[in-house]
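User: Hello, can you help with two protein structures?

Assistant: Certainly.
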Amino acid sequence: MTIDNFDFKGKKAIVRVDFNVPLDENGNITDDTRIRGALPTLKKILNDGGSLIIMSHMGKPKGKVNPKMSLSQIKDAVAKALGTDVAFAPDCAAAGDMAAALKPGQALLLENLRFYPEEEGKPTIDKADPNYDAAKKEMKERQKDFAKTLASYADVYVNDAFGTAHRRHASTAVIADYFDADHKMLGYLMEKEVKAVDNILKDIKRPFTAIMGGSKVSTKIGIIENLMDKVDNLILCGGMTYTFAKAQGGNVGLSICETDKLDLALDIMKKAKEKGVNLVLGTDCVAADAYSNDANTQICSVMDIPEGWEGLDAGPETRKRFADAIRGSKTILWNGPAGVFEFDNFTAGSRAIADAVVEATKDGAFSLVGGGDSVACVNKFGLADEVSYVSTGGGALLEAIEGRVLPGVAAIKGE
């Protein structure tokens, strides 16, 4: 069942959204992107004449009530975005009467799901405890009961929270067991995310270029290995640059470097060569004498960074190499910046990538930007509307690209 061809008239729909929005010290929302992203799904239900039960997590309260993470703080903002009053249930495990009282066109927001340990389904005792296995089994049963309670509020379940789709939580996957195939579906945002990942992994137009940034090779190894059989060009940038440089005998000064992953870096280079993948690594960098926007800088080879200096951005030669590899691509995946883009003086590498991705997109490429820092990057440069798709899911996107099945998607699609 798809949300587009389902008529919600007279139905109660419980929708898992990702309203884990950033708040300032006064509880005001500083970025409402996630709320706006869910509006097409929520408004479709209300416009059809259905009633709406909205559930989400916020932060990591670890199964305990924390007023600073209460969704009551965002109720008014959600109501304003929806253009209708939104009631609030302070106890999402005891909201049956409030849900039952909902009339068509009305909406109810449940309290933070993660105030309940049953949502994540993790035992509250340490793994070393001899009773851990028994506690784990008991928590799984409690998780099912919690999911069954949430399911009892509604006729239909909609999952529109891609950011948590890689978690088998009560509200993201277990709850789906209590609805038949015709009464559970992905929301519009989830549908778009799944389609974007499929475009990258299953409907590849060549050349396919993947740009992987970030500080550590170790956190991206699963993705790199899965992409190695799919891409034509693989750009590895950011802090990873210096692990590869050191692995080849370079001096990297104070640059971030995983000295225990040098063999892994060499192995990636070897595999790329064997598979005919054009592996593009940085050759020069902008080095700084301190981790600061105002540090002194110099351009130097990544193989010869002076003692006391560290690479914080891609150098001019590297920027040109990256852009040349990106231009002409027909499928592009970008995850992770090329430098410390948070500092304005070290944005040039990431900006060069962003500009090349935008240029290729204008020439007909499908470009997917995902992972928190890349999204922050394109937003900082004001280029989010000039790429094909900006993913809302950090960990979920990365696990999908790694080739893993996402529990939140599988629970709906029956995969």
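That covers the first. Now for the second protein you mentioned:
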Amino acid sequence: LIALAVRDGYERIIVVGGDGTLNRTITEIIKLGANEKIVVGILPAGTCNDFARAIGLKHLTGAVIKNIISEGKVKKIDIGLMNGEYFINNSGFGRSYENFVNKSSSFKTLLSFKPIHLTAEWNDGQLKGSFLMLLVCNAPYFSGGFHFSKKPRINDGLLDIYFVKPVSKINLVLKFAKGKFGMPIADRDITYIKTNKIEVTTENSVFPQVDGEPPKPEGATKISFDIAKEKINFLMLN
């Protein structure tokens, strides 16, 4: 459908769905070399709608539909890259492949986290240690409104990166319980950096994902995250 829209000269593509559908749409637009010609919009109708939430679209109403389709303003925004895969909202790792396949609950997923030994290098720094998860953000929200901070911006040319240090399972559950009430999760157990590119090497295979999409089953031990050279024209609320 996207290929047909590009071929036939359509100027706007509105995604009715969530982060995964938006990811697939933008990936296809970029692969077709149409990211400078097409304007993309989102009507939140997915599971988590975290990117829509980041731009102020929490609920799908008639007024929102009218605003986005006919009155929304166009803004050029960043796109992230994880080992060559595009992401608009976030990427990272920590969950096991089985958690993705079995669609485990958030609580069960938290209890399954194990320390990951890694080395991270970026423009002006290096970090070595064990961490339960790594989240690389282009926009702040994940898993239905959870967030470490509201700092991430979609057009600053930088990624906001959060390393979660090993803590007890009870501590971890309590941290994420705060997120259920809309509170930021970041605290002294979170290491935060901001950069345009970072390379991570892990001792054992991890399963990095983009925008909540299932990861590749073979996993990876070398993962690079950076800002793509391509931008996307996006429809925003007035």
